[in-house]
Amino acid sequence: MRGIFTAGAARMCPTVEGGRVSDRIQAPRRAAQNQFVRWLLAAFMGLTSAVLAAAEPAVVDTVRVDERRWQQTVPLYGTLTSPRDADVTPRIAGLVETVAVDAGDRVKAGDTLIELDRALSRLELDTLQASADEAAAQLEEARRLLREADRLAGRGAVSQSELEARRSQVAVRAAAVQRLRAEVAAQRERLARHTLIAPFDGVVRARRVDPGEYVAQTTPAVSLVATDTLRLDVSAPQQYFGLIEPGMGVRVEPETPIDAPINAKVDVIVGASDATARSFLVRMFVDNRDGALTPGMSAKAMLELASAEAVVIAPRDALVRVPGGGTRMWLVREGDDGTLRAVKRQVSLGRSANNEVEVLDGLEAGDRVVVRGNESLEAGQPVRIRDERSASAGPSADPPGNDGRSLRLSQPGG
Fold it and tell me: What gap in Å lies between CA 346 and CA 410, rounded to an integer?
């Protein structure tokens, strides 16, 4: 043993050349040996720290998932339009005499918009009326002659042929009166059509003619738009078909400062889906009698939807994104020794909204999932629950420093 120690010591000692020590050769060897010893100490301390850390349970927050009807608020966007928007044209051609409205005026159904010159039409009406009066007088004379002929025929003073002629004359005169009276009525209608009236309540968007212009029956004279009730058409994704029904309440939020959202109802659902956009049309009407809105405004319709059957629902904070794709959750289960341990579980997801996800496979109602502290868990690792709540209780406040992200990135191999 002494020989071995002597030999080792000799190796550690400086080389002797000619009875003298060569420090220049031995110094680098001593430095390398010291560095190796320091590395061993650091590795030992790191291993000791890891073992001590593994021995301590991970502190986590959990949520018990539940089974209930899926509810979500779906925002759908569209543009407010008027259900009645028309370029009003004259019902008869003529010369514009007066224009009673201008852009921005509010009118009621039946109000006068423009007046056409009616002098010639009024004269023609007078002529037809005179002809009708004349025909009525001739009819009355024909009836008198028929009565007289009928009395004379009773005494044999008038032949039967003459009596029939008198009767035929009364029928002819009566037909003439009826024809002329119809012509008078038609002329009165033409005269009335020289006044262009508003077909519905609304606001004049534009006046397109001025006095002195000649207009045809195809000439737009006034643009009129109804604003008391506005229409909102939105495109809903096809997965919501069957969840949105006529009569369902809707909260409409126009993109303009208003005191509160406007309550409306779904009026029509057009079931013919757009094959390109994978959507269908939902139409609702918005009360605008106060004039707070105007056609052309963009608006958001908030629909509260609920599934027909109960589904398993978990918080989004429980999701952990796995490198390479896929998602998982960490469950907390009690082991045979009574220790709470982390259990890794792959899940299949459905819908996602309001910080919650629908779990199609992988979880059951009552399972406890980790929502805080799941970033670096290992399978089978002991855990200690700091806070536990039910999924239906809603999300808890994020701890300081948490950025509120719903998906966490798992460590490789975790």
Answer: 13
Q: At what angle do helices 160-192 and 119-154 cross, to 10 degrees?
A: 160
What element of type H or E holds 71? strand 66-81
Write the DSSP assignment of 330-357 as a string of letters. EEEEE-TTS-EEEEEEE-EEEEEETTEE
CATH class belonging to 55-68+311-409: mainly beta
Residues in the chain: 414
What pLDDT, in 10s, does the model give residues 174-225? 999 999 999 999 999 999 999 999 999 999 999 999 999 999 999 999 999 9
- pLDDT by residue (tens digit) across 62-104? 999 988 888 888 899 999 999 999 999 999 999 999 999 999 9
DSSP states along 231-270: EEEEEEEGGGBTTB-TT-EEEEEESS--SSPEEEEEEEEE
Q: Which of 246, 203, 240, 247 is nearest to 222 (CA)?
A: 203
Helix (H) or strand (E) holding 320: strand 320-321
pLDDT at site 267? 93
The CA-CA-CA angle for residues 344, 357, 283, to 5°, reads 165
What is the model's pTM? 0.60
Is 74-83+225-309 a domain of CATH 2.40.30.170?
A: yes
What residues have CB less than 8 Å from 10, skipping those under 6 apart? none
Helix (H, G, I), strand (E, B) or coil at 195: strand
Q: Please count the helices (runs of H) and the strands (runs of E) in the chain.
A: 4, 25
Residues contacting residue 218 through CB under 8 Å, at least 6 positions apart = 89
CB atoms within 10 A of CB 323: 11
**What is the mean pLDDT for each group of 10 consecutive residues in the chain (414 residues)?**
43 45 56 68 57 68 89 90 95 96 96 96 96 96 92 84 91 96 96 96 96 95 96 90 89 84 90 78 92 91 85 89 81 88 88 84 90 87 86 51 41 42
